[in-house]
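Page header: ASSEMBLY MODEL / two components / 238 residues total.
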Amino acid sequence: MTRILFFGRVAEQLGPECELDLPAQGATVTDIRRRLAERDALSADALLRPDVRASVDKVVVGEDAVARLDQEIAFFSVFSGG
Amino acid sequence: MALDVRLASAPLSAPAELESFLDGRSRDGAVVSFTGLARAVARDGAIVDTLTLDWYPGMTERSMQDIAAAAAARFRVTDLVVVHRCGEISPGETIVFVAAAAPHRREAFAAADYLMDRLKTEAAFWKRETGPAGARWIEPLDEDRAARARWKDETP
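Prediction written out in full:
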């Protein structure tokens, strides 16, 4: 199982993290987002929004980025700034 | 050139930060500092009891560091300090302190202004105001984005 982190509005809806089974070769952000959204309606509502972005190893990435199982994956709402 | 960029989970003292930044400084002619405070009243008049800044350990510090490094590359400054609170903040407490030291004042003013415009829109925080009416997430305002956009077309 791979741990997925959530921040901002996403964390408010889904909690700070969850675990997800990913293929051994890893998955794209789009694929991870889809797998998470398929779990339940709340996950779909929290994650299938255009302003919810993802990061891999703490770097914001696009939808085509591939995350390996040993990397840190996070989804979050738009930054508010400081 | 020194960049001092920190995330603070406990209350921070702007006077102490400024004093430390000024201490022993004899080759610069200017230090400009900015202190951002948590307000007790939101822009729409709603009462705010607590401001909460969620952060992503590692990513948030990196976003602040990147902004400070860009300011250092862009302006002729000697040193920069950026200290930002995270977690729960009460009205009146300092949220952010920035200071820029430079041989001449204009570069120091510009660097501090630039730092704040970018921190207000791009720093990796998620901000929530909580008051009698409940909690709500805060996102950058159009005027924050317009302030940030001022710096885009200028050469470094």
